[in-house]
Design the sequence.
């Protein structure tokens, strides 16, 4: 910063106030810098789980969960929580075909869902209710059922997974008692690059031909550039497109 304004480099909060006046579009970045500089381990708060894959984040959330704590996926373009839950089940020694039961909510599916919850509660199965935003009233019944399970005592391995589009009708009580997961694009090219590479297991890189590894790295680089370019709106692209992890995954399959 020029002239007397250079003193603001030593006053991060005051510098952020000036940024707020002159460049409100850069306040988010300024806030990230402020947190990194002023809070103990501030970098950890800003970057969080940027370098972890979806499966690693889910495994960490599972360790924090219990039979009374549902895991709630807030869906975003390209996210595939079913695949991640299946991978988690395999890694923990569960058989997804026998111990993971899924039902997509819709007309007439509430009875099936309730029966699955009863079975999972007693036998220690994993139950996944998809698209719960389509039947918000039914979720109040699920809450009552979970309260009854808490009194009765559920099997230790019982887990409830829920998936939903962002919706205002989801009961607050259900959200408060759940571990909530969503897939947000990281801020910055470096963070996007870390997230893209974290999608692949180490073996997927190590056992590939060197040319394939090089092209896969280039694909991750290209994907990160695309994600960053979205910020420029019409100057970046003519049409809005998410450039999600699903696109990166499918591109690597073609490769």
Sequence:
């Amino acid at each position: 910063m020029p002239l007397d304004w250079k003193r603001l480099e030593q006053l991060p909060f005051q510098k952020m106030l000036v940024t707020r006046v002159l460049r409100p579009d850069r306040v988010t970045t300024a806030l990230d810098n402020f947190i990194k500089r002023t809070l103990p381990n501030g970098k950890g708060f800003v970057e969080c789980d940027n370098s972890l894959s979806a499966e690693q984040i889910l495994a960490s959330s599972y360790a924090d969960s219990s039979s009374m704590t549902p895991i709630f996926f807030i869906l975003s373009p390209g996210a595939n929580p079913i695949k991640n839950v299946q991978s988690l089940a395999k890694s923990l020694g569960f058989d997804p075909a026998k111990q993971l039961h899924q039902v997509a909510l819709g007309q007439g599916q509430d009875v099936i869902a309730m029966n699955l919850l009863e079975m999972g509660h007693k036998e220690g199965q994993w139950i996944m209710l998809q698209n719960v935003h389509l039947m918000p009233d039914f979720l109040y019944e699920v809450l009552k059922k979970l309260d009854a399970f808490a009194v009765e005592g559920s099997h230790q391995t019982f887990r409830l997974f829920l998936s939903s589009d962002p919706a205002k009708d989801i009961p607050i009580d259900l959200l408060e008692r759940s571990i909530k997961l969503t897939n947000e694009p990281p801020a910055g090219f470096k963070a996007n690059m870390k997230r893209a590479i974290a999608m692949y297991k180490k073996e997927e890189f190590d056992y590939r031909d060197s040319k394939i590894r090089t092209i896969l790295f280039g694909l991750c680089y290209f994907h990160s550039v695309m994600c960053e370019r979205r910020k420029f709106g019409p100057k970046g692209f003519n049409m809005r497109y998410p450039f999600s992890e699903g696109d990166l995954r499918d591109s690597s399959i073609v490769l």
